[in-house]
Amino acid sequence: MRVAKIRIERFRGFESASFLLPADLVVAGEPRAGRSDFVEALRRVLDPRSTRARVNPLDIFRPVGAGTDE
In angstroms, what CA-CA distances link 16 with 13, 55, 56? Predict the structure, then answer.
């Protein structure tokens, strides 16, 4: 199976993002750039076991400052 496009909405640090993927891909970036979030979103879709667990509240997108008295 080849994944050609990924669209992530309201997941962890992504409010909305789309990625067109080449045949070979290296995910790299600075700390806190979203690499782990990107890989986890892909795993959640492709791994059937990922739907058996409850939703982790940290996986739900929250804008910066949401839920605080700033």
Answer: 9, 19, 19
The answer to whether 61 touches 14, Cβ cutoff 8 Å, is: yes
Residue 70: pLDDT band (50, 70, 90) is: very low
Rg from Cα positions in the chain = 14
| pTM exceeds 0.90, yes or no | no
| CB burial of residue 61 (10 Å; 0-12, 13-18, 19+) | middle
What is the distance between the alpha carbons of residues 21 and 23, in angstroms, rounded to a whole number? 7
Give residue for tokens 């990107």: 38
